[in-house]
Structures are given as C-alpha cells and as structure tokens.
C-alpha cells in the first residue's frame, strides 16, 4: 500500500521532531519505494508503458528492459491501417499479434494504436473518397477492433484529426472530407466491435491549454453530451526543451469532462532540462486522479523516431539516464489513486426506441438514379431502424452505402449498420443506394 503524498509529508514533519521517528521514516521510505517504472506506477493504480516494435523483440537488451520496467505496451507501427489492411479487405495481423503476445506474456496493458489516422494509410485507401472511403474506414475499425476484442486496454480510435495553428478546427484530410461525423462514426463502430476497450482520441501539440487542445476539448464535451462513446483522451507529449506551464491544468480540464486522460507518446529533447521535464510530466499525471498512465515513445535513445535528439529514458546501450531516475522518483512520491473509469457498454437486447421517419431525395437520369434517404428521430432517441420502400417494376438496386439492404427489386428493406443505428432525439442520419431504372417515391421507417 503506497503512502499518499500528504501522508509522507506528515511523517516527515513528525520526523523533524525526533531522531527515533526519523529512523523509522527512512525504513518506511525504503520499503515503500518501488524500483521499476511499472511497479511504481502500479502503486497508485497507473501504468507505465512503452511503444515497442515487433522487429526489435529479438534484441535481448531491448526485451530485458521491456520485461523489467514496463507494464503497458503500444505497437509503434504494427496496428496501423497500412500494416493491418495492406490491400482492401485483406487483413494481416502477424506483427500486431507479436506485440499483443509480448504484452500478454508480461501481464501488461495493451494500448491499440491507431485505428484511423490521415498518415500511414495503405495506398488503396489514399485513393478512395466519399462514401467508398467512409465505408472502408468504418469496416477497418470494425474488423481490427473485432480481431483484438477483449485484449486491448484502450484504443486510439482516431489519431491527430485536429489542425495545428490557431483555428481550433479539424485538419483537412481524406477522412475529414467524408463528413464531419467521421470521428463519431468511428467511435461508435469501435464500441460495437469491442465494448470493453476504452476508446481514446489521441493528438499532439495539445499538451497545454491552446486553440488546438480547446478544439479537442469542445469535441469531447459534445461527444459526452450526445452519448457518443468516448472514454479517454491521449496527450502525445512529444516535448522539446520546455513544458507548457498549464500542462497539469490542461489534463485536469479534460478529466473534469469525465474521461480518462493518458500520456501516450512521451519523449523529451535531450538538454539541460530533460530530467526536469520528464519529472514534471510524471508529477502532473500522478496529481490528476483520472490520469491512467504514461507511455514513452520507445525504450532506448537509439529506438526513437527522433534521431539524434536522445529523447528517451535509456541511453543507446540500455543504461538508465538521469531522466529515468527523475521519473521513478516522481512516481514513488505518489499521489491520488487512479479510479478505473467505468466503460459504459452498448446495451444488449432491445433498448426502448422512439419513432423515426424516412424521406427520399432522388438524383435521376435516363435509366438510373441515386437515392439519398434521410432517417430522422422524433422527440426520443432511436436505437436501430429499418427503412422500407417499393421500387417500381423493372428497377433494381446496384449498390448501397451506410445501410444493409435486403434484396434488389420490389419491396426492399434497409437496416442500419453498426455506426448509425443510434440517432439522438431530433437528429438524423443518411444512407444511400444507386440503381437502374426509376427510383422509389416514398419510404417508411420502423424504429427498434
Ligand atoms: O519498415 C520499413 C522498412 O522496411 C523500410 O526499409 C524503411 C525505409 O524508409 O521504412 C520502414 O518503415 C518506417 C517505419 O516507421 C518503421 O521504422 C517508415 O518509413 C516510417 O515512416 C515509420 O515512421 C513511424 C511514423 O510514426 C510514421 O508516421 C515511426 O516509426 C513512428 O514512431 C511514428 O509514430 C507516430 C505515432 O504513430 C503518432 N504520433 C506521432 C508519432 C511520431 O511521428
């Protein structure tokens, strides 16, 4: 049982009053201090992790440090889109599974990184746009989260979707151009696929209170108010030679929205301040009860993506640096225990559902049409919907997006897909289909 920081201060104050008590404090202090990063973080219910690479697991110096020091792992590249779905619909989990199995063998938490990101997309996805890209992206989220179901502590569902600079808005990307709701669609799909993984939004340059972090803050607040499933926010914390003065306050304002906060990719440029900055980050996480843990982005300086900056806790030979000691001391100083943030799972069975309405708009030409169907919830939220419509004789559906259709001619019903079944009261979602012949006139909607 760790002694909370205020408890230690009380003991030290007592110690100042007498030599005998001071001796007993020294004993308590020694017995209480853990000697590895993971064990020390665990004393307050937190983890201390590292990003690892499958290609390095054969390096005994590397795995020696990994097994000794860390109780969480993140794949540096192995679970990204280009690695897991190199051609559309063909999934490869070989290297992702190597990271997973390494983590399992250590009894570590495994952070999944990252389901959707504008970088490291396979080239086939880079060539898609519109509903083809949206459907491919959501399918990717569903497939990968399903493959790792029950094994991932937290997923970075969406990575780096906000713009740098002062706009506080979204970054332009092919994913963003599929519609502003792509992020919430991804979170809903991830929740449906793996209800027990914590679902995180992850970004960089959001480490202090600034326009970009405030943009993310507003999105998280909106998601929480509308019931979009989000459990955590990752702060990458790729830091230079200083740390924002409001680093802890920024973590705290997100935590106050009811999400867990995590330091997800910490590294700090080597310089006079490196050890101090590492300590400040660690103290900030330990001081925020909803801060779940810290992950450093690599093990040794030679493993870092920041070549030449020596930004990690171990030197290239695997020796502990001053920054290591400062982190360990900050962890051992303790703080409020992290409560495990409950994850609200998607209700099973058939939750109550309000009424819905469907309206069709057609773009027709001689011999064909595209129908866009808007499904609108009434004064109560809708949990699942089915739209029915009749196609004129001689017409047929050739493709459908954002819904699953039954049949292609005559009377057809379209069922919601995993990410658009829940519509808030007064809200709407849209699906579409293309066909030959003439399009339908009206449509009806059944909720539930
Ligand atoms: O594996 C190939 C190798 O076969 C090839 O010979 C070599 C030649 O360039 O490339 C190797 O792949 C590289 C891969 O890292 C593995 O080393 C890629 O080119 C390189 O682009 C890739 O860089 C990764 C980077 O994300 C990509 O954007 C870094 O390792 C990884 O640390 C970095 O991680 C990101 C986080 O995911 C998100 N936040 C920022 C962070 C740092 O950029």
TrEMBL record:
Annotated organism of origin: Paractinoplanes globisporus
Protein name: Beta-xylanase
InterPro entries tied to this protein: CBD2 (IPR001919), CBM2/CBM3_carb-bd_dom_sf (IPR008965), CBM2_carb-bd_dom_sf (IPR012291), GH (IPR017853), GH10 (IPR044846), GH10_AS (IPR031158), GH10_dom (IPR001000)
Signal peptide: 1-33
Keyword GTP-binding on entry: no
CBM2 domain location: 349-448
Top enzyme class: hydrolase
Keywords attached to this entry: Carbohydrate metabolism, Glycosidase, Hydrolase, Polysaccharide degradation, Signal, Xylan degradation
Domain GH10: from-to ranges: 31-330
SUPFAM superfamilies: (Trans)glycosidases, Carbohydrate-binding domain
Family (UniProt): Belongs to the glycosyl hydrolase 10 (cellulase F) family.
Reaction catalyzed: Endohydrolysis of (1->4)-beta-D-xylosidic linkages in xylans
């Amino acid at each position: 049982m760790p002694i909370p920081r205020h408890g230690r201060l009380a003991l030290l104050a007592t110690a100042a009053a007498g030599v005998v008590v001071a001796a007993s404090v020294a004993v308590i202090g020694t017995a209480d201090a853990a000697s590895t990063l993971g064990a020390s973080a665990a004393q307050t219910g937190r983890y201390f992790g590292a990003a690892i690479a499958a290609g390095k697991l054969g390096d005994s110096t590397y795995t020696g440090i990994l097994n000794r020091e860390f109780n969480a792992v993140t794949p540096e590249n192995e679970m990204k889109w280009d690695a897991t779905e190199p051609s559309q619909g063909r999934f490869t989990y070989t290297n992702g599974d190597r990271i997973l199995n390494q983590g399992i063998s250590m009894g570590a938490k495994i952070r999944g990184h990252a389901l959707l990101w504008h970088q490291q997309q396979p080239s086939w996805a880079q060539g898609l746009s519109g509903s083809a890209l949206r459907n491919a992206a959501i399918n990717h989220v569903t497939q990968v989260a399903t493959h790792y179901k029950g094994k991932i502590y937290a997923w970075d569902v969406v990575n780096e979707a906000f713009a740098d600079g002062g706009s506080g808005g979204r970054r332009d990307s092919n994913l963003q151009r599929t519609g502003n709701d792509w992020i919430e669609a991804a979170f809903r799909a991830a929740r449906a696929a793996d209800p027990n993984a914590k679902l995180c939004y992850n970004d960089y340059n959001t480490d202090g209170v600034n326009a970009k972090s405030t943009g993310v803050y507003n999105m998280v607040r909106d998601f929480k108010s509308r019931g979009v499933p989000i459990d955590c926010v990752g702060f990458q914390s790729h830091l230079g030679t200083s740390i924002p003065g409001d680093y802890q306050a920024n973590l705290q304002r997100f935590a106050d929205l009811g999400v867990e906060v995590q330091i997800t990719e910490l590294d700090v440029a080597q310089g006079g301040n490196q050890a101090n900055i590492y300590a400040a980050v660690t103290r900030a996480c330990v001081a925020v009860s909803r801060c779940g843990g810290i992950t450093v982005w690599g093990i040794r300086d030679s493993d870092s993506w920041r070549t030449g900056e020596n930004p990690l806790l171990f030197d290239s030979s695997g020796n502990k640096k001053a920054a290591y000691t400062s982190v360990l001391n900050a962890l051992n100083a303790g703080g409020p225990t992290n409560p495990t943030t409950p994850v609200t799972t998607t209700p099973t069975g058939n939750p109550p559902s309000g009424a819905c309405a469907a309206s069709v708009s057609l773009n027709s030409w001689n011999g064909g049409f595209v129908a866009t169907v808007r499904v609108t919830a009434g004064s109560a939220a809708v949990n699942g919907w089915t739209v029915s419509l009749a196609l004129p004789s001689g017409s047929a559906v050739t493709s459908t997006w954002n819904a699953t259709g039954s049949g292609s001619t005559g009377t057809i019903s379209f069922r919601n897909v995993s990410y658009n079944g829940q519509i808030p009261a007064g809200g709407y979602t849209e699906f579409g289909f293309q066909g030959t012949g003439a399009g339908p006139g009206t449509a009806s909607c059944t909720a539930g």
